[in-house]
Amino acid sequence: MGNLLYLIAVVLVIVWAISFLGGYYTGGIIHTLLVIAIIVILLRIIRGAA
Question: Is residue 9 over pLDDT 70?
Answer without folding.
Answer: yes
